[in-house]
Amino acid sequence: MTTYFNYPSKELQEELSRIAQAIVAPGKGILAADESVSTMGKRLADIGVENNDDNRRQYRQLLFTTNPKVAENVSGVILFHETLYQKTDDGTPFVQLLKKNGIIAGIKVDKGVVPLMGSEDECTTQGLDDLAARCAQYKKDGCDFAKWRCVLKIGKNTPSYQSILENANVLARYASICQSQRIVPIVEPEVLPDGDHDLERAQKVTETVLAACYKALNDHHVYLEGTLLKPNMVTAGQSCPKKYTPQEVALATVTALRRTVPSAVPGITFLSGGQSEEEATVHLNAINQVPLLRPWALTFSYGRALQASVLRAWGGKKENICAGQNELLKRAKVSFFFIQPVSV
Q1: Pick from 9, 47, 117: which is nearest to 62 by CA?
Q2: Alpha helices for 24-147 (secondary structure H)
Q3: Contacts of 222 by beta carbon, 8 Å cutoff, 6+ apart
Q4: How far is 213 from 166, CA to CA, in rounded Å?
Q5: Strand partners, 191
Q6: Distances (CA, A) of 217 to 23, 79, 207, 248, 312
Q7: Which helix (DSSP H) or strand (DSSP E) does residue 271 occupy?
Q8: Is cis: bond before 189, omega within 30 of 0?
């Protein structure tokens, strides 16, 4: 077996590393505003607002026209394809507005999950075929990082070796393509919290999934210093009868990461994984307090955990725009209020 490969050029390495480091700068995290049309429809339905083009645009405008002080805690925003090409009421492209406020624009590039034939109701993620061309265009249009989500389920017989290997290789191929187009890939292997499994099983599955991902990233010669990881926190299944403390969740999470994630990775941007705003904040705080060496920046890439209160405060009414924006400022700041510098 040959070991021939080429590192990216020095210029490309520097560009990717600079972007990745900026995203996980101290005190900052990512606002995940990349909900698809159907997912955004569910969020709007919860507050009694019709799911149409302008209502989605109005809500995203609320987010992106929040006081520029939000950039003190939000380094980047993940956009959906539709949102990347939308504009404010005065005609300013959203991506231009973000950059003006010092926020890095990112883009969701996967095309959703599809069934994995021969598995026990498992799935993989599609969208690789035209990814290079799409990434080249997204880079021209102002995006410097991307996100691709793969999903794994914990059950009696899952995740299977088939599912783990398939999703690891899909993530690695995605990451390689992104870097070829000067885009920093966020690698997102999400182990779902559905089920009644305990914390120990969640930790072991997470370790196995992450180990496979980094083996695949190595096989595909991905430049790790120009990547970020977006994993689940290690939590017991939502139907597990035993309840664990934030400290137990934090120790399991950090231990799993220490066993699998190379120190070359600049940062880990946790997804909230169905947790409430309060749970996600408390767990992130506890993770940053674990008395073990953490060689990466540990921050957030939250969607619902930043936006749930914003949506409720806004309610689809123009007179409530300021209230919604104040909620975003508060949630972004609270997410970092207790986070301490990484131990070395």
Answers
A1: 47
A2: 37-46, 53-64, 81-84, 94-100, 131-140
A3: 172, 175, 176, 179, 185
A4: 10
A5: 152
A6: 20, 24, 15, 29, 40
A7: none
A8: no
Q: Is pTM beyond 0.85 here? A: yes
Place of tokens 């996600």: 280
Place of tokens 């926020």: 103
For 46-67, give the DSSP string: HTT----HHHHHHHHHHHHTS-
Residue whose token pair is 């390689």: 176
Residue 188 among the catalytic residues: yes
pLDDT of residue 313: 97
| Cα–Cα dist 287/251, whole Å | 7
**CA gap 254, 294 in Å, rounded:** 8
Q: Which amino acid is at 32?
A: A
In one letter, which amino acid is 207? E
- Taking each helix axis from N to C terminus, what angle separates 304-314 and 37-46, rounded to the nearest 10 degrees? 50
- Phi and psi at 5, nearest 5°, equal -165, 170
* Cβ–Cβ under 8 Å, residues 262 and 214: yes
CA 33, 38, 43, 45 dihedral sign is positive
With beta carbons less than 8 A apart as the criterion, state whether 231 and 152 touch.
no
In sequence order, what are the beta bridge partners of 327? Answer: none
SS3 label, residue 245: coil
Locate all alpha helices (DSSP H) within 65-160, ordered by sequence.
81-84, 94-100, 131-140
Distance CA 308, CA 302 (A): 10
Q: Is the pLDDT of residue 172 over 80?
A: yes
Q: Measured between alpha carbons, how far apart are the two ends of the chain, in Å?
A: 38
- The region of weakest confidence among 137-141, 159-163, 213-217, 331-335 is 331-335
Q: What is the pLDDT of residues 313-334, one digit of tens each?
A: 999 999 999 999 999 999 998 8
Catalytic entry in 15, 35, 122, 188: 188
Residues 153, 230, 277, 327: which is the catalytic one? Answer: 230
Classify 91 in phi/psi space as left (phi over 0), alpha (psi -120 to 50) or beta.
Answer: left
